[in-house]
Amino acid sequence: MSVSNAKRTVGIPLPMPYGWYHVAFSKDIGPGESKPVFYFDQDLVIFRTESGEAKVVDAYCPHMGAHLGYGIREQMGKGAKVIGDSIACPFHGWQFNGEGQCTHIPYATNMPPKVARGEAVLKAWRVREMNGSIIVWYHPHDIEPLFEPELVPELAENPDDWAEPIIHEWEIGTHMQEMGENAVDPAHFMYVHGTNDIPDAEELSFDGHTRRGFLKTRQPTPRGEIEGSIENENIGPGLSVVRFKGLIETILVATVSPVTSEITRAHYAFYQRREDVDGPIGKMGRALIANIHQQMEEDRVIWDRKKYYERPLLCDGDGPFAKFRRWYGQFLVE
């Protein structure tokens, strides 16, 4: 998978933050399937074992360097073959499990020493699967996870109450921190998105690897103005849940993942209650999602082109950028 054609005229001097990151939607990889992806400035392969477990490994076979994400012969145009719990290299048929061990060399009689000892010979990534996403842990020093991702309780406890999500994705030419700062920038809503006023920030808190915010909103409708709210929560820099209330209850599972330090991929999955989607207010629900999509397109115009200032010139009406950057800074490791 190639990275975006997005090019920056001015670089952003920030490393990729560590954390848990979406690399694929669960629905896109069935049992026995594999898929190449590019994140963290490197090639990876996702595969799902025949028993249904999602695995992520480095893309290149340690034998002769073939890419494990592209199949040949009957697999042409698809990912490499998955046999049981292992992915098979298309070049010589070596098989590797999700822990990076070589499980089979079809033509060898004497195994290489590392293989014979059961050692990992291919980097395996730490994987969690929840909230409709396959998620991996990234840290530049490859240390054990410092925190865990969290389930969205409404979706986990009563999944049948929610309609199939509406998904939108973007590739944006900026560092993830630049996008994250929108969460503490209520003033931009009026000028970038054309709202009638600046939303009221009722709450903003930072606690370890999490950040929470609560905004009151006023939403115009043909029947007059309706008061609503936007509650947002970050679990590390890459995972967030946004709850919209007012016109129609909507849960947005918003994940952002670093393609490189200056290219970010955003994946938005919108969930609305099945009874609302199929009922008379379904049109309002679709309009809300379309509006958020439009806001992302408007933000993208700024993000793709803005310059990063370590010490921006701020005024008293601006949001708490300094607090946000102190919180975010814990994830930035050279």
Description:
This protein is an alpha+beta fold and 334 residues long. The protein has two domains: 19-138, 3-layer Sandwich (Rieske Iron-sulfur Protein); 159-329, Naphthalene 1,2-dioxygenase Alpha Subunit, Chain A, domain 1, CATH 3.90.380. Helices cover 16% and strands 34% of the residues. It has a seven-stranded antiparallel sheet. A four-stranded antiparallel sheet has the order 5-6-7-8, with no helix packed on it. A hairpin with a 2-residue loop joins strand 16 (250-260) and strand 17 (263-272). The chain is globular.
Sequence of strands across the biggest β-sheet? 11-17-16-15-14-13-12
Provide the CATH architecture of the largest domain.
Answer: Alpha-Beta Complex
Given the structure, what is the number of helices?
A: 7
The sequence of SSEs as H and E is EEEEEEEEHEEHEHHEEEEEEHHH
Low-confidence stretches: 1-5
Major β-sheet annotation? 7 strands, antiparallel
CATH homologous superfamily heading of the largest domain: Naphthalene 1,2-dioxygenase Alpha Subunit, Chain A, domain 1
Question: What general outline do the C-alpha atoms trace?
Answer: globular
- How many domains? 2
Helix content: 10-25%
Which structural class matches the secondary elements? alpha+beta
Terminal Cα span = 26 Å
Radius of gyration, in angstroms, nearest whole number: 22 Å
Mean pLDDT across the residues is 92
CATH class of the largest domain: Alpha Beta
How much of the sequence lies in strands comes to 25-35%
The tally of beta strands, per DSSP, is 17
CATH topology title of the largest domain: Naphthalene 1,2-dioxygenase Alpha Subunit, Chain A, domain 1
EC number: 1.14.19.21
Keywords: 2Fe-2S, Iron, Iron-sulfur, Membrane, Metal-binding, Oxidoreductase, Transmembrane, Transmembrane helix
Family: Belongs to the cholesterol 7-desaturase family.
GO molecular function: 2 iron, 2 sulfur cluster binding; cholesterol 7-desaturase [NAD(P)H] activity; metal ion binding
